[in-house]
Hints:
By secondary structure, this protein is an alpha/beta fold. The chain is built from five helices and six strands; from the N terminus they run βααβββββααα.
Amino acid sequence: MKISEFLSPSNILGELTGSNPRDVLAELCRPVATDGLDTQLLVESLLERERLASTGIGDGVAIPHGRVHGLSKLRASVGRSKAGIDFNAVDSKPSHLFVALFAPAAGPGVHLRALSRISRIFRNQAFRDSLMRARDAAEIFELIEAEDTRT
Length: 151
């Protein structure tokens, strides 16, 4: 599975403006809220998962994810916060890179493969550093696409 199968260039936000987890999650939901999907429904799916445990995996990365009724296929969005957000990460450090993953409510398993792929790619420190230096959303997508091909 490749990230490019569920992430499109239009879903790369570049710099996030939110200063707290809820605002950041709402920002990450907006590009996915198409085709009749309600932004608030998407936000709630992410918040429901966050209530179980933080999706801040450490090293400045968070992968909020949720299952959504009415979604026909995996979708994702990406955002960056140079300032960092306290996302209750496992290493207690701020999160700077966010990959939100939205999975259909039916069809277990596919979102686990996607989470594994995202996690594997974002483990690379040099890659994370390049995303933090990227000029804009287009460059962020190009970097993700290139790393997705290499890994």
